[in-house]
Amino acid sequence: MPDSHKNKFSRRINDLTSFKVVDFLDAAMARQAAGENIIRMEVGEPVFELPSRVAKAAQQAIASGANGYTSSLGIAPLREAIAAFCHSRYGVSVDPQRVVVTTGSSAALGMICDLLLNPGDSLLLSDPGYPCNANFVYRCGATPVQIPVTPEKNYQPDLADLQHYWQESSAGLLVASPSNPTGDIIDRATLAALYEGVKARGGAFIVDEIYHGLCYGDEQPCSALNLGDDLYVINSFSKYFGMPGWRLGWMVVPEQALDAIRIMTQNFFISPPTVAQHAAVAAFHPESLEVFDLRREALQARRDFLVPALRDLGFGIHHPPAGAFYIYADIIRFSDDGEAFCWDLLERAGIAITPGTDFGHFNARNHVRFSYTAEPIERLREAVERLARVLL
Ligand SMILES: Cc1ncc(COP(=O)(O)O)c(C=O)c1O
What we know:
The chain is α/β, with parallel strands linked by helices. The chain has two domains: 151 residues, Aspartate Aminotransferase, domain 1; 218 residues, Aspartate Aminotransferase, domain 2 (3-Layer(aba) Sandwich), CATH 3.40.640.10. It is 42% helix and 14% strand. It contains 14 helices and twelve strands. The strands form three sheets. It has a seven-stranded mixed β-sheet, with helices on both faces. The two termini are 37 Å apart. Bound molecules: pyridoxal-5'-phosphate. Pyridoxal-5'-phosphate binds next to helix 6.
């Protein structure tokens, strides 16, 4: 932002850091628009066709004039479909009243921070982790306390970290499983220990499950919904359901938080997008779920190709990702400045990836993130060839 403008804006906003992946996305799209052949591995955005039932439901909603606002917490059929999905996937009964449909899970994450954090409070996050979370915390005048996570512990925090990093000011712990950028999951015992540990300290446990449904091995992540009903569980239509541009997510919240959240959603958003909600109901039809599950196989094939290929080139992948659609790799062999490395790859190889500094501070300059969701496997092969040309 130009300095001449900065002093006109609030400190809270001036202090926000840019979401670097979006800087790379903009640069990649500008080059594509200028006719360059860019291989897009920066953005965490599934690029798949909508299942026909979802497309039809959206068309019907438009044809029937669904142009108005809806209830602030979402339309009843969608909240019920989400509760039924939780039951079928995790065997847990969730009262649809505790399901809040949001404008992407971004709105859910922001509102949970608004709900729980006073100025001066802190929230524990993992480093590396989803970049926007720290900014949601800053927006509340609170401080993110970033827990460095290592490949030896699946890039996830555990009870010992909670004990070490918890402070007087801590209002809670936010984890994502599988996580962005590492794709790693928290095993059931660790998740349960974190939940109990946070509860014992009087804090809030927030679990981002937006990459659920995208795990490739035998181990499927346990949903935090199975642990209790006094925690915040976030999900989204952006990843497994492949509808990022429809801007729809949801959260399951403790009953006591519902009134406050209703008031926030009324004020901040009025309601989540109407046509998107009608389309999303059809995403839970067995035929649509079958389409999403098949996609997982395509993504797994991409991961299984890329991990060894990148290792052969000299990238350090210390813990192969269990899920999501990312590979977090160290670039020590090539550079100690991930941002310069990524700009250079865009320039010389026409490959867009994301620097590790987008995701935190811990060893961040030595890392980059590859996303394998936007390009088919043939293009990933071409990416590896281009990488070999410029790096070896
Ligand atoms: C871990 C995580 N949480 C939340 C989000 C926000 O997604 P959306 O607002 O599209 O639901 C993302 C987006 O990439 C993410 O990676």
